[in-house]
Amino acid sequence: MKIFATGDTHGNFERFRPEYFPEGGELTKEDVVLQLGDFSGVWFGNERDDEALDWLEGLPFTVAFVSGNHENYDALARYPVELWHGGKVQPIRPHVLHLMRGQVFELAGRTFFTMGGAASHDIEDGILSLDDPNFERKYLTLKQKEHTRF
Predict the structure, then answer these.
(1) What is the pLDDT at residue 99?
(2) How far apart are CA 108 and CA 3, in angstroms?
(3) Which residues pair with 83 in a beta bridge?
(4) N or C terminus of the chain: which is more exposed, having fewer CB within 10 Å?
(5) β-strands 32-36, 96-99: how paired?
(6) Do 65 and 98 meet the contact criterion of CB atoms below 8 Å apart?
(7) What is the torsion angle, in degrees rounded to the nearest 10, for the CA atoms of residue 91, residue 95, residue 96 and residue 102?
(8) Confidence class of residue 15 from pLDDT cuts 50, 70 and 90?
(9) pTM of the full structure
């Protein structure tokens, strides 16, 4: 088993494309790419998530993610819980797994503890206020700027 790690996809999974992650083409479903927070692939909690999740399932490796502070926790809570490599997961697809918080996993002879995301600095530090009547517009503007920086 091979293990790779990345983080903060925010629902954009381009980094897993062969031109950006050529190593992925040599992997199998036994190999795991750990996505460490801010996965956001289960965002709407309905069929609008299916295209991206089905694409991830079609990758040659398993994607296992830890929830971050930018997730739809209500949607995640609707998935069943199973045991996988010693800890609890929620299979979103057979090879797209939500590694639940507070779990210990044994992968490739190594022990991993999953500890979910922190408080969101973009809201609680005063950049945005949840009470602001323009919160949603400001939040979406900041998110758009965040994704155009690179």
Answers:
(1) 97
(2) 8
(3) 88
(4) C
(5) unpaired
(6) yes
(7) 60
(8) very high
(9) 0.79
- Report d(CA 31, CA 110) in Å as an integer: 14
One-letter amino acid of 15: R
Question: Do residues 110 and 96 make contact, with C-beta atoms less than 8 angstroms apart?
Answer: no
Residue 150: the pLDDT is: 36
User: How many whole angstroms separate alpha carbon 46 and alpha carbon 26?
Assistant: 32
* Token pair recorded at residue 62: 């398993």
**pLDDT by residue (tens digit) across 35-85?**
998 899 999 999 999 999 999 999 999 999 999 888 889 999 999 999 999
Looking up tokens 């507070």, which residue turns up?
A: 102
Taking the C-alpha atoms of residue 24 and residue 63, their distance in angstroms, rounded to an integer, is 11
Amino acid at 25: G
